[in-house]
Amino acid sequence: MPFPPSKSLAQTVIQLIGGSGNEHVVVERRPEDGFLVYVHVSLLLAAVLSHPILLRHGLDLTAPAGLPDRPRRLRLVLFAGMLTFLIGFAAAATYLPPLLLGYTWSANPTDIQLMWQVSEIIEVMIPFVITSGFAFEVPALVVGIVWLRITTREQLVAWRRFVVLAAFVVGAWVTPAPDPLNQTIVAIPICLLYELGLLLARRVPAESAQPTV
Questions:
Q1: 8's torsion region: left (phi>0), alpha (psi -120 to 50) or beta?
Q2: 3-class DSSP state for residue 210?
């Protein structure tokens, strides 16, 4: 954290997500809550910002050494993955908090006024936002690993059932409610994005789609 909290990326994310509740948001009750929220978001952002490096090493280790024009392909796949991740992350951080929180307040079956602390909003919304970024990245990575000859589209189709299972596990993790409806709402877009990647992978030239031993 090289900058003061008022100028850091973590503080920007906290203000963007935590300020989406308007009059329904209350200040923290304990003095340490604000600092703990800042540290929590900073650690999550550190994991997100290290994602390109980890992805770059993962693709470099798994892509065949004899792949034609290998460095350029790696750069393009990494760029596409990061671009789609940022789009999903930015869109979710901007639109998901007011949408989800507004639904929570409107669906309240009682006359009790709901009030959220900033730390509670961050705890609920940050997993949604990060998961949205990774979900948007799925189509680019599906096409990328086929183009890099890491695997074939047919093999990815065979793994579809495992992707569906993983999507529902992620849905159970990021949703605050234990009911299967919320889990399904999260899992279905992930499955659809995977199917979109399989559909786009059909356009990879046949000679570029075969894994190299």
A1: beta
A2: coil
Are 135 and 45 in contact, with CB atoms under 8 Å apart?
no
Residues 2 and 21: their CA atoms lie apart, in Å, by 29
Distance CA 154, CA 161 (A): 13
pTM value? 0.77
Q: Give yes or no for a contact between 36 and 119, defined as CB atoms under 8 angstroms apart.
A: yes
Strands 25-26 and 116-117 come out as parallel
State whether residue 8 is helix, strand or coil.
coil
Question: What's the rounded Cα separation, in Å, for the pair 129 and 67?
Answer: 35
Mean pLDDT of the chain: 79
Among residues 127, 119, 115, 117, the alpha carbon closest in space to that of 177 is found at 127
Q: Considering Cα of 145, then 149, then 150, then 155, what sign does the dihedral take?
A: positive
DSSP string, 138-175: HHHHHHHHHHTTSS-HHHHHHTHHHHHHHHHHHHHHH-
Q: pLDDT digits over 67-117, tens only?
A: 888 999 999 999 999 999 989 988 887 777 666 666 655 655 556 666 667
